[in-house]
Design brief:
By secondary structure, this protein is α+β, with helices and mostly antiparallel strands. The chain has one domain (about 1-40, about 70-145): Nucleoside diphosphate kinase-like domain (Alpha-Beta Plaits). It has seven helices and four strands; from the N terminus they run βααβααβααβα. Strands 2-3-1-4 form a four-stranded antiparallel sheet, with helices on both faces. The radius of gyration is 15 Å and the shape is globular. The mean pLDDT is about 100. The chain binds inosine-5'-diphosphate (IDP) and magnesium ion. The site of inosine-5'-diphosphate has 8 residues, from loops.
Length: about 150
């Protein structure tokens, strides 16, 4: 089953939007297999955003994600990565469609509330980076057949 890593970033936690964000992924049909509330160590932030190392926004980005606690989620489902990205909305909140998390609750790129993995491979890798295997729960959900056709 496809996996994606979602982070409700510090602004989401500080603004009391964590419940709203989880609600949207739950309602979409994604199955929660891991969740933790944590203060992100700088080293983990740098590894997570390694692809952005050297860009002008890298330092502010690491500062942002480590500035205050986050809620990290591992979600599973068919098309989990693409579905979650569409639920999150465009990186620039001013370009994010209304009805998406960023389109409904954010205004600026450096305060865009949520992270979501951007490819199937990165979904697997990021869940592995943020969660130990022992922190992930494999469970049959009673309504799975009403969400997953296969
Ligand atoms: P994504 O979060 O939609 O996948 P990425 O391009 O992977 O977007 O960038 C990671 C994060 O870095 C963004 O969510 C945003 O918080 C921040 N970021 C990206 N580009 C810029 C920029 O040009 N200025 C400031 N922050 C940026
Ligand atoms: Mg990204």
């Amino acid at each position: 089953m496809e996996r994606t890593l979602i982070i409700a970033k510090p602004d989401a936690v500080q603004r009391g939007l964590v419940g709203e964000i989880i609600r949207r992924f739950e309602a979409r049909g994604l199955r929660i297999i891991g969740m933790k509330f944590m203060q992100v160590p700088r080293e983990l932030a740098e590894r997570h955003y390694a692809v952005h190392q050297g860009k002008p926004f890298f330092e502010p980005l690491v500062k942002y994600i480590t500035s205050s606690p986050v809620m990290v989620m591992a979600l599973e489902g068919t098309n989990a990565v693409a579905a979650a990205r569409l639920t999150i909305g465009a990186t620039k909140p001013n370009e994010a469609a209304a009805g998406t998390i960023r389109g409904d609750f954010a205004l600026e790129i450096g305060r865009n509330l949520v992270h979501g993995s951007d490819s199937v491979e990165n979904g697997q890798a990021e869940v592995g980076l943020w969660f130990a295997e022992s922190e992930l729960v494999s469970w049959p959900r009673h309504n799975d057949p009403w969400i997953f056709e296969g």
